[in-house]
Amino acid sequence: MALTRRLKWLALGITLLWGLLLAGCGVQPPPVETAPPLMINDTVNNAVLTLPIVVADRLGLFAHQHLRVILRPDPAAPLSLSWAGSRWPIEGVLAVRPDLVLVSPIPDPHFRLRALRHLPLFLTPAATPEEAWARQVLALHQVVGNDWKVIPKAEVLSLWAQRRLPWVMVPLSEWPALKNRAPDSRILAWIGASTGPLPTVVITGHPARPGQLTTFLAAVNLALWYIHTTPAAQVAQLIGRPTAEEIATIRQADHYGIWPAVTRLDPATYQRGRQFWATGWPDYETGVRNQSADAALTFHGW
Fold first, then answer.
1. What domain of life does the native source organism fall in (predicted)?
2. Residues 241 and 153 in one domain
3. In the chain, how many domains are there?
4. What burial class does residue 7 get, using C-beta atoms within 10 Å of its C-beta: 0-12 exposed, 13-18 middle, 19+ buried?
5. Counting Cβ atoms within 10 Å, is residue 5 exposed (0-12), middle (13-18) or buried (19+)?
6. Which of 144, 167, 190 lies at the terminal end of a domain, its last residue?
7. Are residues 201 and 247 in the same domain?
């Protein structure tokens, strides 16, 4: 079993390497301007969690399969990126952990989440889409009686520089700016560390054109492999944001296991999501449709 898995990853790596060599030799992907667009409704609006789609596009993986992917808010789109639990059935998964972190301008090596009981919890507006995750995680740690307060980012930065805010919850993309304002700042807790992988950002819907979903998922699988095996600096260079902040964000997101190995949603991860939310998710056979995700795993011969 282990040998088979290694051979599959080797085949996947060879496929991606060949594509990169072609790009490096000046071979351009097939033109896709005339191809029908694959519209994807982005209801998540989180650059970290949706990074694999951007990477797949920049690597030319969509173009080589005659796909023209357009990711934007569009309720009429046949495919959607959404937070888990909002749409069914799930065709694939793009993120398996939230990217929220609880940070402080003052290091506290003995910090525990339970110390937050009955204390105010601050978060930036960018963190509010994932607030439900945070509340659920804190509930698991018996953290109750909190007064949740949203503070504008500019105000947070000002208070942070003066060490006048004890802690704040932010997405990973905002953490480097706080670190720059107060170099001694530390991540007190990563929201999601105690849950294990569970569906976070999922892919739902089905394009009208046969095979488009399989092709899309296969390209994203390659992008996921690239992210997991490539230095963060190189990934940041690829997407055109080679800053120290972006590199740190990508490195931390990969370290925290935010992105899955492949888009196929396995039963254990789904079941963990059902238990975590306890809000009447359907069983796995009803809530997940794996035909396209399974086909995507053999799309490149692995």
1. Bacteria
2. no
3. 2
4. exposed
5. exposed
6. 190
7. yes
Residues 116 and 132 in one domain: yes
Angle at 109 between CA 97 and CA 233, to 5 degrees: 50
Residues 218 and 282 in one domain: yes
Q: Please check whether residues 203 and 291 belong to one and the same domain.
A: yes
Q: Specify the amino acid at residue 96.
A: V
Contacts of 151 (CB under 8 A, 6+ apart): 122, 123, 124, 159, 165, 168
Q: Can you list the pairs that 296-300 forms with residues at least 24 positions away whose Cβ atoms lie under 8 Å? A: 296/92, 296/214, 296/215, 296/217, 296/218, 296/221, 296/262, 296/263, 296/264, 297/218, 297/221, 297/262, 297/264, 299/214, 299/215, 299/217, 299/218, 299/221, 300/11, 300/12, 300/15, 300/218, 300/221, 300/222
Residue with tokens 């902040």, as numbered in its chain: 245
Q: Helix or strand or coil: residue 190? A: strand
Per the CB < 8 A criterion, the answer to whether 189 and 100 are in contact is no
Question: For the whole model, what pTM was predicted?
Answer: 0.88
Same domain for 201 and 293, yes or no, is yes
